[in-house]
Design goal:
It contains two helices and nine strands. The protein has 159 residues and is an alpha+beta fold. A five-stranded mixed β-sheet has the order 1-5-7-6-8, with helices on one face. The radius of gyration is 20 Å and the shape is elongated.
Length: 159
């Protein structure tokens, strides 16, 4: 289990996909990319998806994701994405009242129970008191993290 904090954007793509019955069908799918701006998010999703989609596709919508951190699972069965809402509990020292602040995360897991287990695994290593307020499966297809491009090595010329 690892976590990554970044600026995440949800990108909706529309394209024709070959169905299991062999017929072409128009589909709209949502993906998540790590980017600094809307422009970069569009560029990144087009680069990432051009190797997966044959033919034309269009980016229908790009919006900032409601979460800053994503928990990635190393398990092979973790093929779904769950939007989770955690409430962090603090005590106001003056009034001695409990205060809760909500934070959204995206969690990769194979099942709902595995998503809860993954949250507890990551958050168990912290000293923060928290409550899982909600866990809901999303329709996200995949998440693309930013990867530094390898620089081309230039041959050194001898004199």
């Amino acid at each position: 289990m690892r976590s990554r904090t970044a600026n995440w954007f949800e990108c909706r793509l529309k394209y024709e996909k070959m169905g299991e019955d062999g017929l072409q069908k128009k589909v709209t799918e949502t993906y998540v990319v790590d980017a600094l701006s809307f422009t970069e998010a569009e560029q990144r999703i087009m680069e990432e998806m051009s190797s997966y989609i044959s033919g034309e596709f269009e980016v229908n919508d790009i919006k900032k994701a409601a979460y800053k951190e994503i928990f990635f699972s190393d398990e092979e069965s973790a093929d779904r994405w769950y939007k989770t809402k955690l409430e962090f509990i603090t005590i106001d020292e003056k009034t001695e009242k409990e205060k809760r602040s909500a934070v959204n995360y995206l969690v990769q897991a194979g099942t709902l129970n595995a998503a809860v287990k993954n949250i507890d695994e990551v958050m168990g290593g912290t000293m923060i008191d928290y409550v899982i307020a909600s866990v809901a499966e999303t329709k996200l297809m995949d998440v693309f993290e930013y990867k530094k491009k390898e620089e081309e090595t230039k041959p050194e010329y001898e004199q």
